[in-house]
Structure formats: structure tokens, C-alpha cells
Amino acid sequence: MDNFQLVTKNDYAYHKLKELIVTCELAPGETIQQSALAAKIGVSTTPLREAIRRLSGEGLIDLAAHKNTKVSDISADEARHLLEVRRALEPLAVQLAAERRTDEDLAQIKSNLARLEPVYRDVDALQAHRVFHQSVYLASKNPILVDELERLWSKADRYRVIALSKKDISPAREAQIKSEHQEIVDAIADKDGESARAVMLLHVGRSLGSQAVHLLD
């Protein structure tokens, strides 16, 4: 799911396991059978154990002493908490992006916008959506904020996938999402931080993550 350069077996195992969890190929609450999973990924159990440790620190794996290692469960409460934090941080990030972006930042954001397909189509389209938002966050020039949003996005992606699997989205809503993305880019291009913030707040409130809260309640 992430854009990364594979350097070591540990890196590969980490990113591959994270992808399996975020896309729900490894289901919430599923016990991780380390030998079988290592064979599936194509690594030994040593880098897999390191990947499990790292993802436990990110809240995607439950690693309790004397118990089976499991994919972290999902809940309506967690979906709601993620949405609350996103409503605080994503509008801030886009406001800062509008105020601080360079011409190079804007060109990258526009390029990623052009690659978007309807976000409700499939997981690959969801990844393109993530890349677009990442380019907006990076333009904020606030690495702490970018890191926090990256961690949030990985946890929130599971809820997006759940919403994708359970809810049909109308063509009108797809058109609305496309319009919101364009309005965000236009505000960044105009260096209009307040407008960018307002559109992003609306965008988050209508998002798959927001829908997941209602589906899980």
C-alpha cells in the first residue's frame, strides 16, 4: 500500500504484512500463524517477527505475552476516535499546504489528482486516493503532522475497506467526491488556507471512515 523502496527483508516483510492487514486480507481478530504466513510472504520467520513487533507498535497487531498473536480488532469506537482526530488534523494539514506549498508541491498534487479513479471502485483506487492526500500533507512542511497522519491513515484504511465492502455508492456521491478533491486543489493553488480547510472538513465528514462509524454502530 505504501510507496517505499525495498531495502531489506525486514522492510519487505513489514510492508507486505501491513498491506495484508490494511486491506483486510488478514481479517480483524485473525490469529497470525507465523510459519504459514512467512511462507506466503516469502520470508523466514525472523523478519516476519520483526514486522509483527513494528506493527504491534502501530496498533495493527495485538502482541500479548502467553497469547496468540492476532490482528487487532476493529470497533465502532475506534472508527469514531479516528474520525475525530482526522477532523482535527486533516483540515490543519491542507490549510498549511495552501499557505506553504511550492510550485513543485502543487505540480505533484495536480499530477496525483489526475490519477484518481472513483475511490469506491476498488482497493487500488483507494491507494491512489491515499497518494493524493499524502502529497497534500507533505506540502504542509510539517513533518510531525505528516507522520501522525500517515499512522492514522494506515489504521483508518481498514475501516475504508469495510465501508467499501458493505455499501453501494451512488454516481452522485462519486461526482461529489471528485468535486471536493478539485476544490481542495483549487484552494491550494490559490493559497487560500481557510477555503482549503473548510472543504477538507466537509470531505472528511462525508468519507468512507465516517460511513464505517455508522455501519459498525
From TrEMBL:
<dbReference type="Pfam" id="PF00392">
    <property type="entry name" value="GntR"/>
</dbReference>
<feature type="domain" description="HTH gntR-type">
    <location>
        <begin position="7"/>
        <end position="74"/>
    </location>
</feature>
<dbReference type="Pfam" id="PF07729">
    <property type="entry name" value="FCD"/>
</dbReference>
<protein>
    <submittedName>
        <fullName>GntR-family transcriptional regulator</fullName>
    </submittedName>
</protein>
<dbReference type="InterPro" id="IPR000524">
    <property type="entry name" value="Tscrpt_reg_HTH_GntR"/>
</dbReference>
<keyword id="KW-0805">Transcription regulation</keyword>
<dbReference type="InterPro" id="IPR036388">
    <property type="entry name" value="WH-like_DNA-bd_sf"/>
</dbReference>
<dbReference type="InterPro" id="IPR036390">
    <property type="entry name" value="WH_DNA-bd_sf"/>
</dbReference>
<dbReference type="InterPro" id="IPR008920">
    <property type="entry name" value="TF_FadR/GntR_C"/>
</dbReference>
<keyword id="KW-0238">DNA-binding</keyword>
<dbReference type="InterPro" id="IPR011711">
    <property type="entry name" value="GntR_C"/>
</dbReference>
<keyword id="KW-0804">Transcription</keyword>
<dbReference type="GO" id="GO:0003677">
    <property type="term" value="F:DNA binding"/>
</dbReference>
<dbReference type="GO" id="GO:0003700">
    <property type="term" value="F:DNA-binding transcription factor activity"/>
</dbReference>
